[in-house]
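Dear H.,

Thanks for agreeing to be a second pair of eyes. The structure we're designing against is below in token form, covering all 128 positions.
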């Protein structure tokens, strides 16, 4: 079943599968504020669109993390809901720092949004 799906994707997308569907990349944040104290954040991002989600690694001890990780969803369509949730990693319970969401459109778009706990999240997506 899985291999048939892969074959179908190859037929639909051509040999360059990376060009097909949704790609979310160049994800970074500036000025995240995880705690009442002045310690730096340990940020990570959970990205989701449709049935696909991925969680980045944690970038420790900085208010300005760059994640260098991507979300790929080959079955994405215009209008699908894309959500990025920024968290601060902690020992017991991670803090949700803010949510960035958009309904995706075709093409390449650079987006940013202000996070509810402070700071900004930036990302770029391409839907082909
Ligand atoms: Ca925290
Ligand atoms: Ca922390």
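And this is the sequence the design step returned. I haven't edited it by hand at all.
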């Amino acid at each position: 079943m899985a291999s048939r799906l892969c074959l179908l994707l190859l037929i639909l997308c051509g040999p360059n599968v990376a060009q097909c569907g949704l790609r979310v990349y160049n994800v970074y944040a500036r000025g995240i504020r995880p705690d009442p104290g002045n310690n730096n954040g340990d940020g990570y991002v959970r990205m989701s669109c449709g049935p696909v989600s991925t969680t980045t690694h944690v970038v420790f001890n900085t208010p300005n993390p760059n994640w260098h990780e991507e979300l790929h969803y080959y079955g994405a369509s215009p209008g699908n809901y894309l959500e990025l949730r920024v968290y601060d990693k902690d020992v017991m319970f991670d803090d949700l720092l803010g949510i960035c969401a958009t309904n995706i459109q075709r093409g390449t778009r650079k987006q940013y949004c202000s996070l509810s706990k402070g700071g900004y999240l930036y990302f770029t997506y391409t839907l082909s």
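Two observations from my side: The longest helix spans residues 2-13. The pocket of calcium ion (ligand 1) is lined by residues 34-35, 88, 90, 95 (CB under 6 Å).

Warmly,
E.
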